[in-house]
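Supplementary Text 2. Reproducibility record for the structural model of the 294-residue chain.

All settings were left at their defaults, and a single model was retained for analysis rather than an ensemble. We include the record here because the model underlies the residue-level annotations in Supplementary Table 4.
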Amino acid sequence: MRERKRNKKRLFEDAVHGVFLLLGLVTVGCVLLITVYLVISGIPAIREIGLVDFLFGKAWASTAAEPAYGILPFILTSIYGTAGAIVLGVPIGFLTAVWLAKVAKPAVRSVIESAVSLLAGIPSVVYGLVGMLILVPGIRKLFNVPDGASLLAAIIVLAIMILPSIVKVSLTALEAVPKEYEDASLALGATPTETYFRVSVPAAKSGIAAAVVLGVGRAIGEAMAVMMVAGNVPNLPDSLFQSVCFLTTAVAKEMSYSSGLQRQALFSIALVLFLFIMLINAALNFFLKRDKEK
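Retained model, structure tokens:
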């Protein structure tokens, strides 16, 4: 009888492991299919335009009589926009998570967590609509510029959009830190603030870093909200108040009417964006693993 139960448990465990393995293989397969498709679709345009001219060209005029396919403005705009969103969003999200995990009263924490969850569920187009109707006119009036649709507006919108990911993941990581760590620090004479930032935060470092990775992915991959507030002009991002175009918006705004080399170039932009995200994730994971080994 016991032997039958053991065999049933083993069969159940083997079945569960098999399902998990299958789902993992499906995930890897999807990534490989996307990679292969983007490479096959994007390489022809890069060959025809030239890798240097494509990546470092400063002019994008895909519908002109003499078309130009330089995506340097898109690349720099995506880098500056993502970096700006991280600079604004990460400190706010991180400090909010520390405050919620260690300081906030239960009633206040419940309200703020609900608000953060609501932010996470708001569609991108709503962020873009609010930014277009409130933020863009506000920037125009506040800074006395001709048009508020600019890199600054995109950075602010992206910073707000990455807050839920950073707050929720960082909060989960901080709550996973054993209470004994903080008790030992307080017993040695450290203040609560010193304990939070010198004991709890370093112990939750890997989870907080994962939150930053998610924030970077959300910021660099966003299209709809950015399209509504950035101006969508392929300018080099020389100023925060200049209308710009991101890699994602460059693909989204032209794909519906593109054809021929223009369409192939848009797939090449998608390939560059895909490789860019993979390099960022690989670099962050490398530094995280190196810190764990130390």
